[in-house]
Amino acid sequence: MIVLIRGGGDLASGVAYRLHQSGMRVVISELADPLAVRRLVSFSEAINQGEVTIEGIVARRVTDPSDTLRVLQIIAKGQIPVLIDPDAQAAQSLHPTVIIDARMRKLPPEPLRHTAKMFIGLGPGFTAGQDCTAVIETQRGHRLGRVIWQGSASRDTGIPESVKDRRAERVLRAPVSGVLKTLAEIGDRLQEGQAVAEVAGQTVTAPFQGVLRGLLRDGMTVPAGLKIGDVDPRDDPALCRLISDKSLAIGGGVLEAILSRAELRPHIWS
Fold first, then answer.
1. What is the DSSP letter of 267?
2. Cα–Cα distance between 13 and 42 in angstroms, integer?
């Protein structure tokens, strides 16, 4: 059984990690220019680097989504193929049993030509029983990671979740449209006011003392207001290389949803 995950950002990567560690064959489809901010824990980085290793799991880039042989060869090595395939065209040749939309677009999904036995959506934008089989709650709290079989996840508030009482201010955004020039590295300890990046000559600074947990790649063209970075008030650079508790909780919800379907169990590890 193949599970196709659309998106390779940090939440999607937590799902991929859970499923891969459970023995499932996982394939990721991504944009040609991924927008993951937490790049050290995002399998989408394989698109840029060719190969990445996150918590012991190797992911490799596949430039041609129709190259099914290469995809299967990577899977056979116990690794995760990451396809440049924004429209998930590979679903037509791979015939995944489960498709997971982990792009966090917060919009209703566009229809796919391939119909999987199970379609799972992460977070707001999906309606279980209408445009997907199940929705996984992505908002922190008592409902995080829960499987929703009818209805939708909590609505998007537009307000970042709190980390040590820091909310919106911990997110770095592009002040204008332009080319991003990075002035710091993920994992750096930052002082309040320290320059982190520039966009079209305008400087983006650290809002408080903390660790740079995420930052888009240097040279990317970004629109005004796009999230380009994330400062963590916790003084622990090691967290930058660990899949988050939130991502793993969501991955656990996906695993529960798949295992709960009796008709899928005989095929899960085949």
1. G
2. 6
CA distance 177 to 174: 7
Mean pLDDT, residues 250-270 taken together: 92
Question: CA 180, 213, 171: angle at the middle one, nearest 5?
Answer: 65
Q: In this structure, how many other beta carbons lie within 10 angstroms of the beta carbon of residue 95?
A: 14
Q: CA-CA distances (angstroms) from residue 138 to 25, 30, 67, 156, 250?
A: 23, 20, 33, 10, 7
Nearest CA-CA partner of 117 in 95, 86, 135: 95
Q: Would you state the structure tokens that stand for residue 138, as one six-digit string?
A: 């992505």
- The residue assigned the tokens 């002040």 is 175
Residue 252 CB partners (closer than 8 Å, separation 6+): 18, 145
Q: Start-end ranges of CATH 3.40.50 in the chain?
A: 2-156+245-267
Contact 193, 222 (CB under 8 A): no
Query: 211-242 pLDDT, tens per residue?
Result: 999 999 999 999 999 999 999 998 899 999 99
Give the CATH number of domain 2-156+245-267: 3.40.50
CATH no., domain 168-233: 2.40.50.100
- Start and end residues for every CATH 2.40.50.100 domain found in the chain: 168-233
The Cα 246–Cα 251 span in angstroms is 9
Would the pLDDT of 164 be above 60? no
User: For the chain, how are helix, strand and coil distributed in percent, rounded to 5?
Assistant: 20, 30, 50
Place 114 in a pLDDT band, splitting at 50, 70 and 90.
Answer: confident
Q: Answer yes or no: is pLDDT of 44 > 80.
A: yes
> pTM for the complete prediction?
0.94
Q: How does DSSP assign 102-133, residue by residue?
A: -S---SPPPP-SS--SEEEEESTT--BTTTBS
